Amino acid sequence: MYLFIASEIMLFGSFFTAYFFVRIVNGVPWPSPPYHLPVFVATVNTFILMTSSATMHWATTSIKRGNVWGMRAGLLLTFLMGLAFLIAQLYEYMRAGFNTSDGAFPTVFFCLTGLHSCHVFIGLAILAFMTIRAWRGHFTAEHHHGVEIGGIYWHFVDVMWIVVFTTVYIL
Amino acid sequence: MRNPLRSEEEAYRFLGVVIVGAAAIIAAAYVNTWLGLAVAVLAFVAIGWWLAHEPRA
Asked: Which stretch of DSSP H or E encloses residue A9?
């Protein structure tokens, strides 16, 4: 787990370094005109992702107490909210009005948010497997390691989004 | 140093701590950019201290 965290910190760290470099070179205001960031969609997305973390936690605590239906509902809701996040992110990309070929700012924006979206996509794949296994009755109050590991990954993805959202969209 | 992703419960708690830290940075940066930077440094130190001293769940 330590190796995973270290590799992820280095991966995101390299993209954040590029982001801060572009930002400092361009100076204020950020983003440099004529670009506008879709802050509203990103804010809604943030609430969706934070809620999905709560449902993920609900799923884990449910199976620890032996509540199989609580876990199933929690996992399904988490998956649906993760999917909604990814769809909203794609919608945001389509409506952004700029592309990677438009300069350093759009490139670093798409790289940073795209890297996070890739993590969400992987998380969705894990959630899909977890949900299928949950509906097949593979998890019990004693044996739920699969739910635990998936939950850790999902919370990690949410932590990274908080950092990306705060840095890119708000500050 | 404690691994914040040791278990699902701890990862969820860590997410809460990060949200609080981010909110503090945003609020401070809204007042003044340098204050935001100072709060960011403080938040990083505080989270690091918390990870180092947090009692096991």
From this structure: helix A2-26
